[in-house]
Amino acid sequence: MNNNYYIGVGRRKEATARVYLKEGKGQAQVRTNDGKEKNLKDYFYMEPSLCEDIYHPLKLFNKENEYDLLVRVKGSGFHSQAEAIRLGVTRALLKISPEYKTTLKSFSLLTRDARKVERKKIGFKKARKKT
């Protein structure tokens, strides 16, 4: 990619999001595994509040209309993908300006949620459910 992009990678459960932050007019595009590009609001059509969640790091600094987002996301469900995108946006913002770190940390946007699905054990129906 060009040098005018700021890249941030976010993960949550099985979801991985690579976020390209570029100076622009505040547009957001999501590219899925099948190569299709959609608008962010069209991608999270079933729950528009997830879009608000994604833009939270940008809204803290009133930058939501100054940067375009290009997101490549795969894996897991919509909620986990939204949280992965939010973490990617936060990490890309840090590359723009390291002074943002204290504010982002106070809103706990820098911590990656490390929880994963527990594996299934032998002889059990699920991870902890007995036969």
Automatic annotation (TrEMBL):
One of its GO terms (molecular function) is RNA binding. The keyword Phosphoprotein does not apply. Transmembrane segments: none annotated. One of its GO terms (cellular component) is cytoplasm. The keyword Ribonucleoprotein applies. This is Small ribosomal subunit protein uS9m. GO terms for biological process: translation. The lineage of its organism: Eukaryota, Fungi, Fungi incertae sedis, Mucoromycota, Glomeromycotina. Keywords: Ribonucleoprotein, Ribosomal protein. Belongs to the universal ribosomal protein uS9 family.
